[in-house]
Amino acid sequence: MSTSKIIRERIWTKLHDVAKPDTRFHMNFAEVIPDFEGSEQATDRLVAEPDYQQSEFAFITPDNCLADLRRRMIEDGKSFVMSTYGIHRGFLLLEPDMVPEGAALYASWLDGMEHFGRPISLEEIAKRGRFDLMVTGASAVSVNGVRFGKGHGFFDLEWGMFTDLGLVDETTPVMAVVHDVQLVTDQLQPSETDILVDKIATPGQMHTVERRAKRPSGVKWPLLEPKQIDQTPPLQELQRIQGIA
């Protein structure tokens, strides 16, 4: 069994005690990164950070534990892009003026994002310019910044697309929001596609990563199955942009 699989299963066992069930996937952590007890306190820590306060345009993953952050961003007047489930329908854009007063909580949920947000192409994202901040949930994060998702590699893929378009790079702040039980004390060796995070917000602390390894850059096309490209419209769009379709 791989190290990542061992860590995920170890964390998932602990997560059962603090996770909030998903409406569709319940406690199937292979399909959903759940919300958890204390996620609001973790969000409080994140929004106190200068990188958040100075940001105007961010990328936020659709993880349940980030619903409160999405609500805060709407109320704070910040625009953000969020991926759809599995990136199957690409990305959604939500800007504060799209959400009526009093509807920020609903808009922060995935159904609300579908209602108030609108689809946005990679080309349109690129025209808007760089992301000031990226925030993701995780199954687990090590103290040296190695992030484990559900095991499907979606965040790594999104990072690859965004670096290919110059929207993010080595200097882009990347933060993770997890429960304290999801913070792994092991110093782990990142793989060639792992995106190292800079800060980890938990209910109990804000952990700053002393990052040494560089982040990867670009989509690793040889590692992708043709079926995955066929099922991910932004990958097809990126191929057209790069002239390799």
Folded structure, characterized:
The chain is 33% helix and 17% strand. It is of the alpha/beta class and 245 residues long. It has a single domain, classed as NagB/RpiA/CoA transferase-like (Rossmann fold, 3-Layer(aba) Sandwich), CATH 3.40.50. The longest helix is centred in the N-terminal third of the chain and has 13 residues, at 3-15. It is globular. The model has no long low-confidence stretch (mean pLDDT 92).
Shape: globular
Structural class: alpha/beta
The number of distinct structural domains comes to 1
Taking Cα atoms only, what radius of gyration do you get, to the nearest Å? 17 Å
Q: Report on the biggest sheet.
A: 8 strands, mixed
Q: Count the helices. How many? A: 10
**CATH superfamily descriptor:** NagB/RpiA/CoA transferase-like
Give the strand content. Answer: 15-25%
Rounded to the nearest angstrom, the distance between the terminal CA atoms is 36 Å
Count the beta strands. Answer: 13
The CATH C-level name is Alpha Beta
> Which blocks of ≥5 consecutive residues have pLDDT under 50?
none
Keywords for this entry:
10 helices, globular, Rossmann fold, 245 residues, eight-stranded mixed beta sheet, three-stranded mixed beta sheet, 17% strand
